[in-house]
């Protein structure tokens, strides 16, 4: 596995509750292979899964690849915890996209999974049908998912076919997700979204970041840390490939053992805004 692919796998496999990512794909094989890496830890951790597909042979291929990955890791589970649903049966019932109905379905399925003894719900949806509704309605739905998913045992990856998007629409999609993934010329790239700073702009940079505290710890060449926002979950430490992050008495801290590679994974997995990578969209 190339380093580039490994980075993409790390991002999707380390997703946490409240994660809302997007993926841009050129081929179904690329999509299936990466999403299999996303669902594998969910199966191993006792989560329920929903995979909304474009139809055709996707379900059969996905089941085969998932079972192969589970078998190769020595796990005895199979992909029976994953429910495969065709996009027309989930998003376009009666041929019409009804955002509020779809949002309610995500809530209902999450509650159902918890009642059945699962730890939560890990989902993905293929937006290959995006031409079936107007763009603003679809983007409004994506914005609503951000509000819905916070605080729930639910995580989601929305996948978009590159052939149906132009640059401005890609930016629309990225701005409504925490992290974006896309494959171009055989390599996976990562896009990190930071919400725009609202005017008026304060005189101190820290004061311009919503939800942050003005006394963040800023070290040149490294992310800005806000220890008082940290809950000590350790997710950021586990995804830091350079080893610069650690927990000091249950709070995020920096030990600077090497240069930061600005992968932004630490900020992507932090749900309490304890880490800020101070730039907008970065190509890794």
SSE blueprint:
Elements: H1 3-13, E1 20-25, H2 28-44, E2 48-53, H3 58-72, E3 82-86, H4 87-90, H5 99-115, E4 121-126, H6 135-149, E5 154-161, H7 167-175, E6 179-184, E7 187-192, E8 224-225, H8 235-239, E9 245-248, E10 251-254, H9 265-269, E11 275-276
Parallel strand pairs: 1-5, 1-6, 2-3, 2-4, 4-5
Antiparallel strand pairs: 6-7, 8-11, 9-10
Helix pairs in contact: 1-2, 2-3, 5-6
Describe this structure in words.
This protein has 284 residues and is an alpha/beta fold. The chain folds into two domains: 3-191, P-loop containing nucleotide triphosphate hydrolases (Rossmann fold), CATH 3.40.50.300; 205-276, Alpha-Beta Plaits, CATH 3.30.70.20. It contains nine helices and eleven strands. A seven-stranded mixed beta sheet has the order 3-2-4-5-1-6-7. A two-stranded antiparallel ribbon has the order 8-11. Strand 9 (245-248) and strand 10 form a beta hairpin. The chain starts with a helix and ends in an 8-residue tail after the last strand. Mean pLDDT is 86; it is low at 196-214 and 280-284.
Mean pLDDT: 86
Number of helices: 9
| Distance between the ends | 17 Å
Largest sheet: 7 strands, mixed
CATH superfamily label of the largest domain = P-loop containing nucleotide triphosphate hydrolases
**Gyration radius from CA atoms, angstroms:** 19 Å
């Amino acid at each position: 596995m190339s380093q580039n692919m490994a980075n993409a796998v790390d991002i999707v496999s380390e997703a946490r509750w409240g994660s809302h990512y997007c993926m841009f794909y050129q081929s179904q094989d690329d999509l299936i292979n990466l999403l299999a890496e996303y669902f594998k830890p969910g199966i191993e951790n006792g989560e329920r899964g929903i995979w909304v597909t474009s139809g055709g042979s996707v379900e059969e291929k996905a089941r085969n690849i998932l079972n192969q990955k589970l078998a190769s890791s020595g796990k005895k589970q199979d992909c029976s915890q994953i429910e495969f649903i065709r996009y027309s049966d989930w998003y376009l019932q009666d041929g019409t996209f009804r955002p509020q109905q779809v949002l309610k379905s995500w809530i209902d399925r999450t509650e159902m999974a918890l009642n059945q003894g699962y730890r939560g719900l890990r989902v993905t949806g293929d937006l290959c049908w995006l031409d079936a509704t107007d763009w603003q309605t679809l983007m409004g739905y994506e914005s609503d998912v951000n509000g819905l998913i916070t605080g729930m045992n639910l995580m989601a990856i929305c996948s978009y076919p590159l052939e149906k998007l132009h640059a401005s629409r890609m930016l629309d999609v990225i701005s409504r997700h925490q992290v974006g993934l896309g494959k171009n010329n055989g390599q996976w790239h990562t896009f990190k979204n930071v919400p725009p700073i609202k005017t008026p702009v304060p005189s101190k940079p820290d004061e311009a970041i919503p939800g942050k505290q003005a006394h963040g710890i800023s070290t040149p060449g490294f992310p800005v840390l806000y220890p008082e926002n940290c809950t000590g979950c350790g997710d950021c430490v586990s995804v830091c490939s350079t080893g610069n992050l650690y927990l000091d008495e249950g709070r995020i801290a920096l030990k600077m053992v090497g240069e930061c590679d600005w992968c932004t994974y630490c900020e992507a997995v932090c749900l309490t805004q304890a880490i800020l990578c101070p730039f907008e969209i970065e190509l890794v």
